[in-house]
Amino acid sequence: GAVVSQHPSRVICKSGTSVKIECRSLDFQATTMFWYRQFPKKSLMLMATSNEGSKATYEQGVEKDKFLINHASLTLSTLTVTSAHPEDSSFYICSARGGGSNQPQHFGDGTRLSIL
Amino acid sequence: DAKTTQPPSMDCAEGRAANLPCNHSTISGNEYVYWYRQIHSQGPQYIIHGLKNNETNEMASLIITEDRKSSTLILPHATLRDTAVYYCIVRVLNYGGATNKLIFGTGTLLAVQP
Predict the structure, then answer these.
(1) CB burial of residue A86 (10 Å; 0-12, 13-18, 19+)
(2) pLDDT in tens, B66-97
(3) In this complex, is the C-beta atom of A115 within 8 Å of any C-beta atom belonging to chain B?
């Protein structure tokens, strides 16, 4: 089946640091990628949608200057959490979908971000 | 996207069939029903999707009622590794655009008991 790889799987860093998370589609071209965050015992919350080569579309309430998304190729999208603070600690999950109209989204295994 | 309603939790005995219901009474004619599951501390895993016909794959079967207002995901022989949160999501299937995103509800926590 389709594979989406997310890296790193876990990050612990100091407050004020910027953190970059990579999401790669390994065996298909991802025309659209999605970024979610998930707090403990809660459901996934969509943060933004990005199409290759264009600016990401952010969900209401998500700061685009805080969460920078780049989708420069059909196999790679990155999420950068800028000047991270403890309240940004969360489980970040990416998802990718190919170009076919009947293609489901496939998810990475997530990145657990802990800001001290 | 149409809203879905699922029971918050269910138990199932190992080896028995697990039947997970989902209510989507406001579903539109061009909205598909998708099922995903999330095992603790992992990303969601795609299971199956359908429009109006019943679907079956190596993981599960999806039964959609004739009026499409509800569906049931069936795991024919549940194992301990099937313990997870199961999400039922309805989504318009277009060639891109804002309506193509998956919006997750709270799902059903299925606990398979030995």
Answers:
(1) exposed
(2) 999 999 999 999 999 999 999 999 887 654 55
(3) no
